[in-house]
C-alpha cells in the first residue's frame, strides 16, 4: 500500500519512486503541458528532476511532490513546494508550483492540491510562499488567485532570459 505524506479528498502526496519515471516523463515531454517552460523534458531530464526533488525533500522536508489520484492510484503530476535561489530581489524563497498531465486538467485538482501544500507549509513553520508563472499562463495564475494568493508584482525571470516569450512573469504570494 502506498504511504502518503498527506492527502486531500482526491489526491495523495508522496515522495518520488523509480516507478514514476515513465508516467512523469510522458507528462514532461508533452508540448502542451510544457508550453510555459523552456522546453519539454527528456526521460533523463525527468529522472534528474525526480532525483533533485528527493534530495530537496531530504534536506528541507518538502519538494514538488509526486501526486496520485487516489481513486485510481495514477500519477497525475507534481504539486508542491520548492526552494528558489535564482537571482532576484525576492529570493531565496519558498515557492509553490504544479505540473499536471492534461488528462487531469480543468477538474480543480491543481487548486485542491495547492491548498493542501499551503497547509503543509504552514504546519512546517513556513511563513511566506510565493508562486510565479509566465504572464500568459492564465490557468496557473487563476490557481494562484483561487488558493488565496495575492498579486505582488511582475518581473523578468532571470533563468528565462533566453526565452523572451515566457520571461515576463507574474509573482503572487501569501503570508501566514
From TrEMBL:
Q: Does the keyword Transferase apply?
A: yes
- What Pfam families does its record include? Acetyltransf_3
Q: Which InterPro entries match?
A: Acyl_CoA_acyltransferase (IPR016181), GNAT_dom (IPR000182), N-acetyltransferase (IPR051531)
Keyword field contains Protein transport: no
Name the keywords, alphabetized.
Transferase
What GO molecular function terms would the record report?
A: acyltransferase activity, transferring groups other than amino-acyl groups
Start and end residues of each N-acetyltransferase domain: 11-170
What is the name attached to this protein's record?
Protein N-acetyltransferase, RimJ/RimL family
Task: Say which species the protein is native to.
Answer: Algoriphagus alkaliphilus
Amino acid at each position: 500500500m502506498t504511504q502518503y505524506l498527506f492527502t486531500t479528498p482526491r489526491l495523495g502526496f508522496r515522495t518520488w519512486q523509480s516507478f514514476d519515471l515513465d508516467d512523469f516523463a510522458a507528462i514532461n515531454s508533452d508540448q502542451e503541458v510544457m508550453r510555459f517552460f523552456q522546453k519539454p523534458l527528456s526521460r533523463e531530464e525527468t529522472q534528474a528532476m525526480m532525483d533533485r526533488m528527493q534530495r530537496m525533500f531530504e534536506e528541507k522536508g518538502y519538494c514538488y511532490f509526486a501526486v496520485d489520484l487516489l481513486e485510481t492510484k495514477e500519477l497525475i503530476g507534481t504539486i508542491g513546494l520548492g526552494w528558489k535561489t535564482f537571482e532576484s530581489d525576492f529570493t531565496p524563497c519558498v515557492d509553490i508550483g504544479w505540473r499536471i498531465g492534461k488528462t487531469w486538467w480543468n477538474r480543480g485538482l491543481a487548486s485542491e492540491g495547492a491548498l493542501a501544500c499551503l497547509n503543509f507549509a504552514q504546519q512546517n513553520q513556513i511563513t511566506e510562499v510565493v508562486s510565479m508563472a509566465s504572464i500568459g499562463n492564465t490557468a496557473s495564475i487563476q490557481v494562484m488567485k483561487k488558493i488565496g494568493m495575492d498579486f505582488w508584482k511582475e518581473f523578468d525571470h532571470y533563468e528565462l532570459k533566453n526565452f523572451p516569450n515566457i520571461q515576463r512573469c507574474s509573482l503572487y504570494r501569501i503570508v501566514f
